[in-house]
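Standup, Tuesday
Yesterday: got the pipeline producing structure tokens again.
Today: sanity-check two examples.
Blockers: none.

Example 1:
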Amino acid sequence: MSKKESFIKGTLILVVATLMVRVLSIVQRVPLEHVFGDTGNSAYGLANNLYLMLLTVASAGIPSTLSKMISERYALNKPQEVSRIFRAALIFSAISGVLMTLLLYLAAPFYAEYIAKVPEASLAIRAIAPALLLFPATAIMRGYFQGRGNITASAISQIIEQILRVITAVGLAFVMLGMGYSDKWLAAGASFGGVLGSIGAFGVMLYYLLKRHKEDQVNSSVVSAHEETIIPYTQIYLDIFKLSIPIVLTSLAVTAVNFIDGSIVKILLIGQIGEVLAEQMLAYLTSRAQMVAGIPPILAIALSTSLIPVISAAFTRKDEDHLRNQVTLAMRIAILTSMPIVIALSTASYSVNGLLFKSLDGSDIVGLLTLMTIFQVTMMISNSILLSLGKPNYSMVNVAIGIAAKVAGSYILSCFLGIYGIIFATGLCFFIITILNLYAIKKIVPFFIMGKRWIGFLITIIVLSGIGYGLNLAGIQMVSILPDRIVFFLTCCTVGIVVVALYPIFLVLLRVIRQDDLKDFPTPLRKIISPFMRLQLSKSVERK
């Protein structure tokens, strides 16, 4: 297999693994929401958000940084340096894992009671804390194998992790429910699923590591052609931190926003609506809205991320024309592929809420946060583009500015709009980061996303939003003659099918997508759009 084929295969494996991991993560939340009450949903949501944020700090950026360092050393035929770098990284992972676990476990009561104002969450936070012991080491091993060209190990470990996490979380919650445990204990049982997931992921990576070690021993006759200099651990850590810290801080954007929301919702709303209703709003936001809002980015990020290595290669070659085309394509695909899902889920949020969860309360919260997801998509893609252009510091600063705007916006807007003000502040955060990122990218390579096509795109959004909302209103009228969940299911299917079917038709008719665009689209997207291009051709013939 050629290097190009191997690279493409590795990219596809990671994309598929990412899709599966995100889908499993979302699927887990639905049964748990039915098991928990408002207190349990709030406690589990807070524990999960806090854990994900600390996990990002402990492991994000390290795999890609280590992968780069190791691949470079192997290219220079310096296997002893690779071993030393790997050993240094494992030492760091062991120390950071212990520190993060202790921090989360010891700080849990204070955070839950005095910051988040949900004292019942303390048990759930402590239950998930041990997962942080192994995840840094798992991240190090993933980076090591990526640096040696083995993407499969990382992908399998991610999938196994989520499968074990889902089975343990849902299984324990239902068993403990049958045994009569209270909400806070149910949330703790579900949170413990993260620990089993981390053990599974670590076990998979350890298996591949031992297997690789045996292969290296067999091939030990191949030695370095020259004597290698011993790199001091201090130099290794400086190199790792220099590369990974900007990536870590950039990766914190979404998890930090979710953590902030969980921490401030009750603080900001108790004075307006009382503690009971404030806890309900927190439960709807963390257990329902954040889950549904996690759906639109999945496909868009997977498709666009496959273009990031191409952007990096074009930038390295200083091929400005190709670079401009690929940056434009990445942003355009991210927006075009996520928008129909955002429209469908937002306009049918009432039916989606009724179908997935145990009550219809919080439908507006689900719909509004899902609508804000389009800015999350553009933020994530533009962050990735800046990283591929070798400018992680730009995205790091932009994320910091956006999060500051999120905090300030939440405090100001919640005074007038309550929970909706907090959600608008989330959208504002992602929008500001996107604008700053695009400005930074344009300073490196001039590009445009849609240019004059924005008008046709906005018309498409407005028309399809009206159609989706109208179909949802019409569909829910059937509750008088059919069971509720059947009605919600049929309505969701109708809105989804109609919006997704009409979307490419409008894009083609309004010339948002044109014939010459297709050659640059990824193959799956090109196959979907190609049949609709006849409409554009037919329209051109009629005009002539």
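Example 2:
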Amino acid sequence: MSIPLNTIYSYFETGDFPTQDQFQASWSSFWHKDESIPTSKITGLENLLQNKADKSVYELHLSDPEAHTAFLAKKNASNLSESDRQSWKAALNVGELPDNVATVDSDPLVGNVYTKSQSQDLFMMIDEYVNNDGKITADKLEALALTRIFKVNEHTLQDFMNNSDAYEYEESDIIAVPSADSEPRYTLYFYIGGDKKDIKSYLNTGVSTISMSMVEGLADALKQKLERPTRDGNYYLKQDQGFTLWSPLPEPTLADVVNKDAYSPQPITFINGEERPNGMLGMNPATYSLFFGNMNPNHTGVYNIALGYNNMPSLTTGSSNTIVGHFAGKAVTTGGANVVMGLDAATGLTTGNDNTLIGVSSGYGLAGGKGNAMLGKWSGCFITGDNNTFLGYQAGQYWGKGGSGKWSSNIVIGGGTTGHPMGVWGENSIIIGSNLELNGQQNNKFIINNFLAKDNNYYKTHFIEGNFADRWLRFDTSLQVLRMPAADASYTKNIVARPDGTFGTEDRVDYIPLTGTKTGKPVSGNIEFSKDFLAKLYCGSSELYINNGLISMHANQSNISVSDFGADITDGVNAINLKSDTSHISVKSNVDGAGLLGADYYGKNYEPNSFVQKQWVEERIGGIGDVHPYKVYIALMQFSDDGNFEPQFNVLENTIGDFEWKRQDIGRYIGFNKDLFSGNLWINSNINYYDRGMIVDCRSIRNSKDSVDLNIFRVSEYNPIDLTGEIGIIEIRLYPVTN
């Protein structure tokens, strides 16, 4: 029983002598340090403990990362959207600050470091939490937050830090480090966050003499609170033989979920934080669109399938699209009925319909194109037109880069047939083959070719090339046609070709076979030769030439020629010449022969205008006069005075035939007789000329069957000399050879 203080004070007033009972009663009214204070004797403690949350529930609440995330910001701000962060910045009146800038509180702004006074407030003074007897007062228990204290087994802070991985605790928790005494006393440390093995992360509360026995019943009360699990995970409370234990909650399997026939009202996500929408697996129940990625959840188009990150994030009213691949179809809005597969495939497709695009970056910039089919990596990356077909690795990769237009109705088949990186464009073209390198405009082209590799093939001719608009086709190869049908009377055209390989047709005609006409199939019509060309029929050395106004037949040296101007017959030596512009007939024979000779004697049949034979003349007149027995050439020797000393002979008499004189060297000349004279020659030449008082002479000799040499020289020195003007005379006689 306690005695009121006023009564005790009266025992000890000045001059009073307290009795033994009064003295004992007075000390019995106080608690000795060796005595425990019952919790029932601490005013408000029971109510205070009742107001504390159950530790296990509280721990679960603390370990739940999603608790109050709809209303409160997480410590790492991971549940703040970009608009939330901007709102906080605006409210805090801060912009983008470097991470290492320290700020202090300044109402209403909150800094990231403590001021001096704030730091002092963080320290706990023991005299603020115990009375004069060293006992903890009940009104301070809440301030100490004993329900957040957890005991450790280590006896020093350093040992605890070394083994901190074995404990689960977080910022603001109080670590109670026991002494090694039989009844341990605890030193309390605040964990203020940071590296758990760094002593700077712990703040000594200054309370180091607290023991459980100092508060009666406190140990039992704390025993009613469960220790938190030491490892991360999901747990449930398990009552076993009077003990309440934490037991790990087994992870559910997919089979568990499926067997529950569960319904997911929200898409399943595989990413947390701001990236959650990028990993959604689900279905839009309003549009029956399926997705695994970040398809626009607000689309209204129906029956779409999207699989991949950034796959149809802009979709609006487009329907019936099936698009697979990261970034594939990321710009599709109203386009529909497209089938796309591959990384970056149809990245630029927006409103286009009915396209089938398969391959990395295939149809990359198609935009509003429709009805295109592309198969192969980088096929059709730049084209924006309609009804194009590109098949093969890089098929038509740069088609559409350059020019101005959408470029439609092209077919490109072949790996590596990209076009020039600077641009190739056009429409209505068919290109077939690998590694074809085209550039510039390619409208209406039809090309078939093939190369093993790209090797600057831009300007090479193609195996087959054509133009749909100009309607032509050419081949850079020999042409063979198998199974050609036999022609009958219905085939009325022949195929002919120009030198450049261009084919054309002409009316069919019957040709004279090279083997000759068949018996009973003679040539029954005319054979006409062109007036513009000389026609030739020949066999070996025999030739027949026909031209407008000329017929000529040759056989070795013999020739018969008929023209508008006359006729000629010759065997190379003998000749008969008839010309319409002359008044005579020229007859020539070998000079060694008998001239014009009749095969028979016709003298008995002569008429007044008949040519007579020698026999007839001799019969009537006998030998007459002195007839030369030789042919003769007489000419005055003349030479030009222009410094070239060219021969300009003045012929006085000539029955041998024409001579052609040429200068060969100083004082040396040669004369050619084109009629090839034969027989014995007599040559005489005389010089009537003095050169600076020196006698000049000449010598002439037969050089060959058809030439004569003439040499002019100074007699005293025998040096050749060139002269000008008329200097002498030359005479050549040709005698027949006699046996």
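Quick observation on example 2: Confidence is low (pLDDT under 50) at residues 622-626. The chain has twelve helices and 40 strands.
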